[in-house]
Amino acid sequence: MKKFFATLAVTLLMSTSAFAAPNEIVLPTVETGGNLSVMQALSQRKSSRNFVDKNLTAQQLSKILWAADGVNRPDGKRVNPAALGAYCVEVYAVTSEGIYLYEPTNHKLKLIAEGDFRSTTTTGQSFVTKAAVNLVYVENPDAWSTARKIPPRESQLANANIVVGAMVQSVALAAQTEGLGNCVRGSINRDEFKRVAKLSDEKTILLAQSVGFVE
Ligand SMILES: Cc1cc2nc3c(=O)[nH]c(=O)nc-3n(C[C@H](O)[C@H](O)[C@H](O)COP(=O)(O)O)c2cc1C
After folding, report:
1. What's the number of domains the chain is made of?
2. Residue to mutate, 125, 128, 130, 184, ligand 1, most ligand atoms under 8 Å from C-beta
3. Which CATH number belongs to the domain containing residue 77 in this structure?
4. pLDDT tens, 133-153?
5. Please, are residues 25 and 100 in contact by the beta-carbon 8 Å criterion?
6. By C-alpha distance, which of 194, 191, 201 is closest to 142?
């Protein structure tokens, strides 16, 4: 019953987007059960580029964002490891409706820009514009102020890239459990995405990942 109301709330929030992208998407609680074991998911892992332009369900979107950067313990720590305990990578979800910033602590998506900006997350690979969601992983240098010990700038970026490696693999496995395809991507129109996502100059775009239904 609880699950029904959570799904209904998301459906209502998302349905208001027939004419406008919702300012906020409250994601449903992640269902962690499933039929696929981690070993099976690993055995099926691959890059997919044959996407079909179809929205994910609220639960699928919830699983993908949670795998990317969700909280998985009562003390607020997350699915993926964090160098020196600093959560230095932000996750942007770019859908047909808008650019959203994922807020891990309340498991919500906050609207940054309304419209279909999926093409700005690539330098021209056409499959990207069909993927239901393109995640963009961005290093936020301000986050290092919360680190147990503040490393030099060069190490901060190196650590952020390692963290993103864990994030994309978690998303790949979560996508696999839903029968969704994914493709990690380094070719991103960084200047354009920085502009449309209103990123400050200090932030660094590290990687992107397309996720969605495939043919
Ligand atoms: C850091 C990184 C960047 C990548 N960038 C792109 C990219 O921009 N476009 C793309 O289509 N695939 C990209 N890939 C996916 C690789 O092409 C793919 O993983 C490789 O060909 C092996 O295929 P598989 O993933 O199916 O095993 C990238 C992979 C990694 C790890």
Report:
1. 1
2. 184
3. 3.40.109.10
4. 999 999 999 999 999 999 999
5. yes
6. 201
